[in-house]
TrEMBL record:
GO MF annotation: an example: metal ion binding
Keywords linked to the UniProt accession: Iron, Metal-binding, Oxidoreductase
Keyword Transport: no
Pfam families in the cross-refs: 2OG-FeII_Oxy, DIOX_N
InterPro entries (UniProt xref): DIOX_N, IPNS-like_FE2OG_OXY, IPNS-like_sf, Oxoglu/Fe-dep_dioxygenase_dom
Protein's name according to its UniProt entry: Fe2OG dioxygenase domain-containing protein
Biological source species: Cinchona calisaya
Amino acid sequence: MNSNGEEAGQKLPALANISAALSYIDLSSSDIQNSVSLLRQACLDSGFFYVVNHGISQELMDEVFAQSKRFFSLPHKEKMKILRNEKHRGYTPVLDECLDPVNQIHGDYKEGFYIGVEVPQGDPEAEKPFYGPNLWPMADILPGWKETMERYHREALEVGRALARIIALALNLDGSFFDQPEMLGKPIANLRLLRYEGKMSEPTNGIYGAGAHTDYGLLTLLATDDVVGLQICKDKHTHPQIWEYVPPVKGAFVVNLGDMLERWSNCIFRSTLHRVLGNGRERYSVAFFLEPSHDCVVECLPTCQSDDNPPKFPPIQCGAYLSQRYSDTHADLSSYK
């Protein structure tokens, strides 16, 4: 049985004929209690919501997408020169990732590029998974590319931290709970540029832009272009699964919760199953995955358990958990040699 509760090899029908109605969280609002209430309800209902007025300028968002398109338009051999390494930095080719191996015949019909928190070679922290130096395209090929991505990474991290404070309050914790050094003080924060090639998805034949999955960590900030493709399944335990499209909203982030927050909250907040279907049009998105530090132990929060509701999951170490999840879904690097 896989993580979606399906027997191995069993392909279940899925419906996708409606658009999801998601809440909007305004990060510029001075009414923090209203933001907490809206976020808490969104986390209980679907685990997905929009974030607006987040402080990242439209000009920077547009530049990130423009620079992303410049990179993905390079010849394949140029992109392969900065193929992802064991630290998950660099380029991921089409079909490198397979997020739903039970139902996919190949891998995801998307290519990507990972950028993480810069940790210099020689720093003891660089010995840990997901920490280390980034890989970058040659500056003479893509001038300003590195600087644009570094700035966006910094600003997206601050948005993520601001959201984490609201999430903490929504879980009846101190607002600074996730700011602790072992959590978001030294985060694993991966920016991933994504390009979905213009291939038509065929769910009944196992062809997807991105297979059905839940994200692994604390939360994800997703910026998209205007091409529809993202779908969510609010209840991953019902069959047949009902899929809803998430309409793009210019300038807004689509935010979803990851598996670590589901474990922290003892399933009070949910990590929601989602996928991407290609409709024959090229599609770009920019995902920012925010996770706690490598050494953080994720275990049920005291505000989320009781005698009647004991912890549902054993404690896990963040770095080890992420390493396993990435290993399960990405191609072995030796296959490219």
